[in-house]
Amino acid sequence: MRLKQAESVQKQVTSIQDRLDKLEQESHAKDQWSRSNNVEIKGVPQKNHENLFEIVNQIDKFTSPRLYPPGPKPLPLIGNLLSVALQLRSKKLHHEIWRKWARVYGNILGLRLGLMNVVIISGKDFVREVSSREVFGGRPGGFFFLMRSFGKKSGLVFNDGSSWTKTRRVVLKYLKDFGYNTRHMENYISEECRALVQLRIKDAGQPVLINNMFNITIVNILWRLVAGKRYDLDDANLKLLCDIITRLFRAVDMSGGILNFLPFVRHVAPNLSGYNELCSIHKAIHDFLRETIEQHERNLDVKNPKDVIDAFLIEKMDPKNRTFSDEDLQVVCLDLLEAGMETVANTAVFMLLHIIRNDDIQKRLHDEIDEVIGPLRPPTLSDRSRMVYTEAVLLEALRISSVAAMGIPHMALEDAQLGNYVIPKGTFVLLALYDLHNGNHWKDPGAFRPERFITKEGNLMQDEWLMPFGSGKRRCIGEGLARSELFMFLTHLLQKFRLKLPEGDPIPSVEPNDGLSLSAKTYRLIFLPRNCNTQIVTEYV
Ligand code: HEM
Questions:
Q1: Pocket perturbation via mutation, ligand 1, pick of 466, 476, 487 by most ligand atoms within 8 A of CB
Q2: Which of 2, 49, 305, 347 makes the best surface tag, with the fewest CB within 10 Å?
Q3: Which family is it part of (predicted)?
């Protein structure tokens, strides 16, 4: 009798599954659909549908074979790499390819890229589940990721296990000790914003290339905490270093590219595979970091550490507590520099891009800044609570640009079940954050509309679909810094300037460049002084 009941439910499940699959291909809305009330299940009252799905899930657990998630058919050895290459030829970005396939195969998309299993996770619930489960808290050790850290897992970003736990705890502690998320950090941001405004006053009225405008400012803020040092905004060496980091971020997407999936190709085609270029990029960044650390070693005062590097050097000297090597410290600095520069810079550049495309938004920002801060007093972080519209613009910029389009890859530490599938140990797990932020949930995802984050009563509203910094244990450690920087950049610049497109320049495109972090196509702006005459500007600076 029980067997018959189970068979009958199983039949209904199969028919539901067929319909879901069809619908998924047509409307790409399996999740929403299966929860919606329009599903007709014969003989079962509508209010019991949820229960039926629960029973089905339970039966599924025992009856269905535990399979790798579905995806396009892989070829021997190269897996889906050929299909990816073909898709890229028609100018698609990596995250768009994954998105297109996820629409066909579902929110847990299984790929085989060269020698690696890669699973793409879409939808809020699965993204949160993966981010919160310990078993998915690893980071892949692909060749591309390891070549930046002397061939081994080390540092913060591409590390896992007890070494990562310890490093993360210590880095956070030292960052806090030297001012992270405190008044000191605000002062550093404030000083750098003033320097930036001063630079724009110098070239006011002239077209300025925006794409690398924030790089040195951002490195300076971070480097005050990490290395106790700042550079002039036109420092040629630091400019070169920032350009090198930008090149690295453009060279490959977050899956790590061919060097991760078929690492032996570097022996056959070292130029074509990008291996030689990556080696020279990493060498330049490591030379800069080694020099910075050596300077600290020469000037170290063990009783009076001045920054994060000093604190690490002192920790390293303790014979009972020798967790970190010289190389580990170098990789931590590399992680902070790389993770902290491009992400914030690219978001800021996209933010100005959307503002210049929407003049009414610029006007509302000016109005709010004038009302809350006024023309003279430098903006402070405490202004944020009274600037709902500005905060909504920041959220909207984080959403629409989603520069960490696929997050940072996670890795399954053991075989693990997710939904009805098995994710084998060692699988790369990429989180489709861009899709989360630019999918149907937002109704008009392509429109830059800050009002979506403001309630009818005029309060700021969070949305659980928005997670630009990830979630769970591997959540970004730079979130506080990034949000503070974006607020201060925006308010300092718009307090003093009106942004204008140079005569004859096209309206900048919203289409991103691919890379480890998405970036905007090149565009220029003119900064027109507002609200101030030269004397006031001089006083401010
Ligand atoms: C708008 C700016 C930023 C965005 C959108 C962003 C986004 C992210 C995302 C999505 C992750 C991965 C979370 C996961 O694995 O699930 C991450 C991790 C990380 N971020 Fe950020 N980030 C930004 C700024 C920063 C800054 C300023 C810093 C430096 C202080 C930073 C340092 C890191 C580090 C070290 C990790 C690795 C954490 C770990 O694996 O334990 N990020 N970030």
A1: 476
A2: 2
A3: Belongs to the cytochrome P450 family.
